[in-house]
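To: structure desk
From: M.T.
Subject: fold request, one chain
Message: Could you run this one when you get a chance? Sequence is below, nothing fancy, just the single chain.
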Amino acid sequence: MENTVVIYKSKYGATKQYATWISEELHCDLLNADEVKPKDLLEYENIIFGGGIHAGGITGLSLIKKNYKKLMDKKVVIFAVGINTEEEKNMEDLRDINFNGKIKDLPCFLIKGAYDPRKVKGLDNFLMTQVRKMIMKKPIVQRTDQEKALVKVIDYGGDWVEKENLAPIIAAIKEENAK
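Reply: Done. C-alpha cells follow.
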C-alpha cells in the first residue's frame, strides 16, 4: 500500500510480530518507534501505530499524541496488544486511559498478544504480581471467569499471537483506503 507505514513499540515481541505481518500484508514500510523522528511521519499518508499494553497504557503512543497536530490530515490507525482483550469493558478502559483530546476519535484495535512469566522482569513483574494478589484476595465464588483465566495466564503464560487476529484491522485499513 503506497504511502503507508507501520510503526511499532514492542517490549516482548508480540507487537513487533503483528506489525511485521501487517507490513507484509499491506506491502508497506515497517519502522521501530524508537528509531522514528517526527519528521519521518510526514512522509506518509497512512500511519498504523502498534504498541503493547502495560498498566493500561499503550506503549509508545506518545509519538502519535505529541505529533498529532502534524498528522491531522493523515489516516492514523492504532492497534494495542495485550493479554486481557475479551471484554468490551477492556476496550472502553483502554480508550479512556489513552485516547483523549485530539486523538479521541482515532480508530483502535485491541489484539490478543502473549505473556511469558519467565521473561517478565522489574516493574512489569511487580504489576502482574499485584494484579494476581488483588484477584486472589477475592473469595473464589466472587472471581469472574475472566479473572480466573488471567491468574492462570499470569502463572503459566500463554501465546495467542496469530495472523488471523489481524483480519479486522487489515480489512478496516483496506476499506478506508478504498474511499
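Reply (cont.): The helical segments are 14-26, 38-41, 62-66, 68-71, 88-98, 122-137, 145-156, 167-178. Let me know if you need anything else for the meeting.
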